[in-house]
Specification:
about 120 residues; mainly alpha; about 0% strand; membrane
C-alpha cells in the first residue's frame, strides 16, 4: 500500500503543478516555456487545458486505481507533447532552451507517474 500513497502524492503534486504552474512559468522563464512568436491566446488555451487536467489528477489522487486511464493518458500525452516540442526545438535555433525547460518537465512527469503506477 505504500506505493499507492506515493502514486497519490505524485498525482496531487502534478495536479497542483498543472493548475498553478503552467501559466506562471510561461512568464517567469519565457525562454524555457514560451514559444515564439509570443501568442497570449495560445498560452491561455494551453494553460487552461493543463489546469483542467490538473483538477482531474487531484480528484484521481483520492482513488488512483479507479482512474488508471486518466493517469496513462497523462503519461502518454505528456510524452507525445514532449516529443513534438523536442522536434521543433531542435529545428529552430531560437527555441533550443525548451530542451531545458518544458520538454524535460513533461518527460519527468510522465516517467514519475508511469513508475508509480507500475509499482
Amino acid at each position: 500500500m505504500q506505493h499507492l500513497g506515493r502514486l497519490r502524492i505524485a498525482l496531487l503534486l502534478t495536479g497542483i503543478a498543472f493548475i498553478a504552474g503552467v501559466y506562471p512559468l510561461i512568464h517567469l522563464w519565457p525562454a524555457g516555456f514560451r514559444w515564439q512568436p509570443a501568442q497570449p491566446e495560445y498560452e491561455q488555451m494551453i494553460a487552461v487545458i493543463y489546469a483542467v487536467l490538473g483538477v482531474f489528477l487531484i480528484r484521481a489522487s483520492r482513488h488512483p486505481l479507479g482512474h488508471l486511464s486518466l493517469i496513462w493518458f497523462t503519461v502518454w500525452s505528456s510524452l507525445a507533447h514532449a516529443a513534438v516540442m523536442t522536434w521543433h526545438a531542435a529545428r529552430a535555433p531560437t527555441e533550443w532552451q525548451h530542451l531545458a525547460g518544458d520538454v524535460p518537465v513533461l518527460i519527468l512527469i510522465a516517467i514519475t507517474l508511469a513508475m508509480r503506477v507500475c509499482q
